[in-house]
Specification:
By secondary structure, the chain is of the alpha/beta class. 24% of the residues lie in helices and 24% in strands. It starts with a strand and ends in a 5-residue tail after the last helix.
Length: 196
């Protein structure tokens, strides 16, 4: 399984500090924010990781993380010219992914607590005895219009739709920015129509 950290975006809600340095490189407690999603991927035994960011910020990530050898991982980098979403990140990372399973995490999201559910999902995806194409994690919130929202079929648990910051949310389940996909993710990303 390969890991992808999507670390783009302007961080406009954090201006003026993010006009100087991207939010994923801002300190959270005692380390840059990017270390948290990177650590989660490492805890899932993912050792090949792609960081996707803006042309301006990639040199800063390279300066901080290098090749990842000092962490026991291999880090690659790709540029996303404009923030056009998760599907585009899979198109950009197609050569890196190379039909492998992948876990994508958004670089500005922090996870804490018991990671057993993540490990179970990773193992299920790798073993994939049920032909599962993807795992989308969700969390109930009181203000879903502020998040990416996933609508599930109440009986099967399958994803029916995903919308980014909808005016009229179809559910109250926010997507916390963590996804696991099978080896067809890049092909499927090319088939997706971007939301408006």
């Amino acid at each position: 399984m390969k890991g992808i950290i999507l670390a783009g975006g302007a961080g406009s809600r954090l201006y003026p500090i993010t006009q100087i340095i991207t939010k994923q490189l801002q300190p959270i407690y005692d380390k840059p924010m990017i270390y948290y999603p990177l650590s989660l991927l490492m805890m899932m035994d993912i050792r090949e990781i792609l960081i996707i960011s803006t042309p301006h910020d990639i040199p800063h990530f390279k300066n901080l993380l290098g090749t990842g050898n000092n962490l026991g991982i291999n880090i690659s980098y790709e540029i996303q010219q404009e923030p056009k979403g998760i599907a585009q990140a899979y198109i950009i990372g197609e050569q890196f992914i190379n039909h492998d399973h992948s876990m994508m995490i958004l670089g500005d999201n922090l996870f804490h607590g018991d990671f057993n559910n993540f490990r179970v999902a990773v193992n299920n995806q790798i073993n994939n005895k049920q032909n599962i194409k993807a795992h989308v994690f969700a969390y109930p919130v009181t203000d879903p219009q502020r998040y990416g929202v996933v609508e599930f079929d109440k009986q099967s648990g399958k994803v029916l739709s995903i919308e980014e910051k909808p005016t009229n949310p179809k559910s109250n389940f926010a997507i916390p920015g963590l996804y696991i996909f099978d080896g067809t993710s890049c092909k499927r990303a090319k088939e997706i129509t971007p939301s408006q």
